[in-house]
Amino acid sequence: MDYPKTTWRLIETPPAKGAWNMAVDEAILESVYTADSIPTLRLYAWEPACLSLGHVQPFAEVNTEALSKNGWDVVRRPTGGRAILHVDELTYAVIAPQSEPRVSGGVLESYLRLSQALLRALQIIGLSPEVNEKKATTDPKQPNPVCFEVPSNYEITVGGKKLVGSAQARRKEGILQHGTLPLYGDLTRIITALKFKDVAPRERASQRLLDHATTMENVLGTAPTWQQAGEAFKEAFADVLNLALVPGELSVRELERAAELVENKYANPKWTERI
Fold first, then answer.
1. Residues 21-42: tens digit of each pLDDT
2. Residue 161: strand pairing partners
3. How far is CA 235 from CA 10, 225, 261, in A?
């Protein structure tokens, strides 16, 4: 699809706590809605490692003891999907009003458009990715608390294994889509952060995860740095979506609003443990 040339803001933020990362994404969404900010591509990372839950995922699935032992955080995302352990990865967020043609239409339509940029980014790094178009199914006898266990519609796979996991929230304020690209490390670490009835289902979940997901290092034999992956994302989004990406900073209002959202929402158990 051909898009008219337009300008988006590019924000690259240093590694931060999970509550701050989610608060910043929402603050930008609100600012884009009021036209105080233009559509934004944000690239970021997490420190310390953080387990993020989908918007309606039960908190009872979290192994809080293991999180404390490992020094990991937990946060509830404003978007759907299942749990992700954010560590050793590049995270991206696309935030735009519903009037932006690159994200207009339904969820799957906008996923597919943005997936073209994600595909191109991975090609630039040296991969041969595909867009998975199969409808994901879940066995009720084997619930999947882990996002990366099963590729879902329009997510990115390499060799049949999921490499990019994305989730989207659509509100009157606009569209927020964020996703994660695992660069390296043991994907099964997330199993430690979740509760299972006993050892057997835990081991099965670990094996399913290894069967269905991968990292950049596993595919390439070496992991690109966060900076290298970020450069590929910037080039791909600019090229595929016909964007002029202008480096920028969070506005004073966005910073103030993010701080409010951390305190009142994302670092607050009333939000994180509400389900």
1. 999 999 999 999 999 999 999 9
2. 158
3. 12, 16, 31
215: which 2 tokens? Answer: 């990292």
Tell me the whole-structure pTM to 2 decimals.
0.93
Is 50 designated active site?
A: no
Of 67, 147, 209, 229, which one is the catalytic site residue?
Answer: 147
